[in-house]
Design a protein that fits this description.
seven-stranded parallel beta sheet; alpha/beta; TIM Barrel; globular; four-stranded antiparallel beta sheet
């Protein structure tokens, strides 16, 4: 069975069970460098407009050689873009956010819409050009090279809520959502319009799925009330997914949403999402049995392996026990692709990466 056939069955888009649970993973820069060197495979980066997404959509040659069952692509910085670097090492990205490298992820230290108040302020903001030269060169090449053997996912993460958060600042945005400030829904709409255009361009170039990414939860619960989500965000996402399905009726809509967000899963399914990622472990409502029994008839699941403690610091025996449980429960009857809940960082050793992949293959057969 090819990886493509395996994933289409796991995502409930083809009849029958896959031969095994498919496996997915992605790496930080240091792990990519290590495996590029040890495997003798050149590392290819696709520099996304928001840098952390870069690590989702790069290194496909390395990851597929190691056993990753999907290929992920996305929009790149335009070919003429040169980050405006300051003396302190920070830089401006295409959105006009001032960025700096944090301990693990890049961080926004200056939000371009931090003073926003009105719908007119939204209208005045200048978005990057979705059709700028070079945006989709890598996407075209990856679809051509891999589409026959792999499901190719088009990644537009940092999509609506998270993109607005990066433009405005999380505290201001959440306060203004609560006060129903004039600009909030127009900004969400504008973020969705921009990312819808990116997604449509990826669909035109042949991707099989669109991966939306916004985090509505924290470690203990939602960042907003369900009522706020339903009134201010849900219609925006529904229009976006409807447009993707109109452009390609068999597109697979995927949502990445960190945090304890099980209370929103009925609404998330109503929007049209069919695959839920990353099924963040260790948060309320996200136990594998809770997920499978409560939502297994509505979603395929992708993720569920802890990268906060288990992968960097747990024992091999603990990791094997967890992998076996997740496959046995979330993978029962199909509907599961196993992966770490996020990009693997430098605190995970290369040896642990290889152990993770081997254990997934060992216990994943149907």
């Amino acid at each position: 069975m090819t990886s493509r056939e395996r994933v289409l069955r796991a995502f409930k888009r083809a009849p029958g069970l896959p031969d095994r649970v498919p496996v997915q993973f992605e790496f930080c820069a240091s792990l990519y460098r290590h495996f590029s060197r040890t495997l003798g495979i050149p590392m290819r980066y696709t520099r996304n407009l928001f840098e952390d997404v870069t690590y989702r959509i790069s290194g496909n040659e390395i990851r597929t050689a190691m056993g990753c069952d999907v290929v992920t692509t996305g929009a790149a910085e335009h070919s003429g873009f040169k980050p405006d670097k300051a003396a302190d090492g920070s830089w401006l990205n295409e959105y006009g956010m001032r960025m700096t490298q944090g301990a693990i992820y890049v961080e926004v230290i200056e939000h371009p819409l931090r003073e926003i108040q009105t719908a007119a302020d939204v209208a005045a903001y200048r978005w990057p050009d979705p059709d700028a030269p070079g945006r989709y060169d890598d996407a075209v090449a990856l679809v051509k090279a891999y589409h026959d053997r792999f499901v190719v996912i088009g990644d537009i993460e940092v999509t609506v809520f998270s993109l607005a958060q990066m433009l405005v600042g999380i505290e201001k945005l959440l306060m203004d959502m609560a006060y129903e400030t004039e600009y909030v829904v127009p900004l969400f709409t504008a973020c969705a319009e921009f990312q819808t255009e990116i997604g449509l361009r990826l669909i035109e170039r042949g991707v099989d799925a669109i991966w939306v990414g916004d985090d509505f939860g924290g470690q203990d619960g939602l960042l907003m009330s369900p009522e706020m989500f339903e009134a201010q965000l849900m219609p925006v996402y529904k229009r976006m997914i409807d447009r993707f399905k109109a452009a390609k009726p068999d597109i697979i809509p995927i949502l990445h949403c960190d945090g304890a967000v099980s209370r929103l899963l009925p609404q998330i399914r109503e929007i049209g999402f069919e695959v839920f990622n990353p099924v963040q472990p260790g948060v309320p409502g996200h136990g594998p049995r809770e997920m499978k029994d409560g939502f297994g008839d509505r979603f395929a699941f992708w993720g569920a392996i802890d990268q906060q403690y288990l992968l960097p610091r747990g024992t091999d025996a603990e990791l094997e026990t967890d992998i076996r449980e997740k496959i046995a429960v979330l993978g029962a009857g199909g509907g599961y692709m196993i992966s770490p809940a996020h990009i693997l960082q430098g605190d995970v050793s290369p040896e642990r990466v290889e152990t993770f992949i081997a254990l997934c293959r060992k216990h994943g057969a149907y």
